[in-house]
Write a structure and sequence with these properties.
Blueprint (H helix, E strand, L loop, with lengths): L2 H16 L6 H4 L7 E2 L5 E5 L4 H6 L6 H13 L6 E5 L13 H19 L3 E5 L1 H8 L4 H4 L4 E3 L2 E6 L4 H4 L4 H16 L1
Parallel strand pairs: 2-3, 2-4, 4-6
Antiparallel strand pairs: 1-3, 5-6
Helix pairs in contact: 1-5, 4-9
The protein binds uracil.
Length: 188
């Protein structure tokens, strides 16, 4: 598919996501959050699900976790505009509970997998246990972080979710390490 056609299809998918009623999360969301970034991004970041501020604005990683992510990107020298940032599920689960298996299945099979095909990134960074489990079948972030993982012709890195810092302050350093590795891989 030509570059312009891909960008149009991504926009059409985003429009579908904004009015999606395929799973129960549509009942409690304010705005769905399709994802932000360049259709030609070399790197995709995939988080878990929108939180409160994402639900209010329709944009990914704009709340507390997003502000920490921005800080980490800045210290590692990665430009947010060079990434495509999205989530496993596009609507906020009530009280930020973990998305359920059926919600994950519906949202990824209808939207995320096609976003990945269209963007065709050189590298996908999975933030946290939910995306790591869904995309790679791993049980924990710890088991998978710190190395490149190849699956069906795609390259993945797994990192801690930036929000871990709010539960355990010492984990902020681990998030910085994860993005440091991303930066090194991109320089190669
Ligand atoms: N946490 C996520 O996983 N995604 C967001 O978009 C915001 C917070």
């Amino acid at each position: 598919m030509a570059k312009a056609a891909k960008a149009l299809r991504l926009e059409a998918l985003a429009a579908q996501i904004r009015v999606c009623t395929k799973c129960p999360l549509c009942q409690s969301r304010t705005l769905a959050v399709p994802g932000d970034g360049k259709p030609s991004a070399r790197v995709m970041l995939i988080g878990e699900a929108p939180g409160r501020e994402e639900d209010e604005t329709g944009h990914p990683f704009v709340g507390a976790a997003g502000r920490f992510l921005d800080q980490v990107l800045e210290v590692t020298g990665i430009n947010r505009d060079d990434l495509f940032i999205t989530n496993i599920v596009k609507c906020r689960p009530p009280n930020n509970r973990t998305p359920r298996a059926g919600e994950v299945e519906t949202c990824t099979s209808n939207y995320l997998f096609e976003q990945i095909e269209l963007i065709n990134p050189a590298l996908i960074m999975l933030l946290g246990g939910v995306p790591a489990k869904k995309m790679l079948g791993v049980k924990s972030v710890n088991e998978a972080r710190g190395r490149m993982i190849e699956r069906v012709g795609r390259q993945y890195l797994v990192g801690y979710h930036p929000a871990v810092r709010f539960y355990r302050e010492d984990m902020g350093e681990k998030v910085e390490e994860d993005f440091g590795l991303l930066k090194r891989v991109l320089k190669k």
